[in-house]
Amino acid sequence: MGRKRVTLADVASAAGVSGTTASLVLSGRGDELRISPTVQQRVREASAALGYRPNIVSIGLRNGSSRTLGFVSDTVATSQLAGDMIKGALETARAHGFMLFIAETEGDPELERRLLDAMLDRQVDGIVLASMFTRTRPLPSGLDQVPAILLNALPEQRTSSIPAVIPDELTAGRAAARLLLDAGHRSIHLVGAGPGEHDVPPGTVAGVERLAGIRETLHAAGLELASGHLVSEWEPRVGWEATHRLLEEWGPGQAIITLNDRLAFGAYQAIQEAGLTVPGDVSVVSFDDAPLAQWLRPGLTTFAIPHHDLGRRAVELLVEQIGADGTTTDTSTEPVHRVSMPLRERGSVARRS
Predict the structure, then answer these.
(1) Which of 7, 259, 280, 292 could form a disulfide with 192 if both were Cys (CB 3.0 to 4.6 A apart)?
(2) For residues 147 and 98, what is the distance between their CA atoms, to the nearest angstrom?
(3) Would you say residue 278 has pLDDT above 80?
(4) Is the dihedral of CA 112, 58, 90, 78 positive or negative?
């Protein structure tokens, strides 16, 4: 049989005071209402001795705030790569005095619906709806019942008022092209998409924005992509195949931008098998900063997805909406909040004269 929960009345009885006095002392208002230090000490000692815990749910119902947030994702919680997204969200929630409930849908819309309903039934103050990969997605019904933030996703509904937090892929694309141009490269190839602006795998926000940034910077320099290799999967095998074809046609002296690090891993293999070196014969720039990127030889220069900062920013925005007193406030001034992708500059880019 479980242990009986200690109530405020139990504490008051043990301390020999009224329930009102005990409540005022334990809520930190003893000095304000001139309760003697001796009485306050007696109440605190009784509380500690009995192991009293305040009923946060009841307090929340009275105050109109549960001090809890919901975090519902597809596969973020079980992903090694994106674990820092939850870490950033947890740390920020804790710093603001909120508990974070985390739920995983595995991409099942029906399960997502049930989990969101469960969060709402528990009267969470707000919800973060997160995706492992940056994508455009439909908004489930009921999300407008509480303050909400999309994390690593954009709403399909153009009229949605729910803010979104995503990596700044557009600026990273621009910076990747600028990095190669500043190193003297003029023959720049893309593996994963391109060369046209619409040559992108369906459903990839990252691909669209990275390609747009690359093309924009090259156009400003009076250049076009030397070649683009649209592929259906951003995996090492596909990166190897595309780079193998590229080298057969163009030979050494090229610069390659791969649209993620897994493609870059395959590109490295194809370059080595061709008897060439990175960056002596071919420079490579990528995106994501996967764990293996720093262990390649030479290390891969790549723009990191800021998982921790994404989670932190999403909860910050959610807390701003909720307000200090638990009431919803309209603080969103922009629909999309972009978090910068830091450059991890290693040894895969060489200067060309």
Answers:
(1) 259
(2) 14
(3) yes
(4) negative
**Amino acid (one-letter) located at 249:** E
Cβ contact 64:327 at 8 Å: yes
pLDDT digits (tens, 9 = 90+) for 201-245: 888 899 999 999 999 999 999 999 999 999 989 999 999 999 999
Q: What is the 3-state secondary structure (H, E, C) of 113-178?
A: HHHHHHHHHCCCCEEEEEEEEEEEECCCCCHHHCCEEEEEEEECCCCCCCCEEEECHHHHHHHHHH
The per-residue b/e assignment along 275-289, b for 16 or more CB within 10 angstroms, e otherwise, is ebebbebbbbbbbbb
The encoded tokens of residue 41 equal: 């000490």
Instruction: Count the Cβ atoms, other than its own, within 10 Å of residue 272.
Output: 12
> 145: which 2 tokens?
């019942």
Residue with tokens 């420079």: 283
Taking every pair of C-alpha atoms in the chain, what is the biggest distance, in angstroms? 90
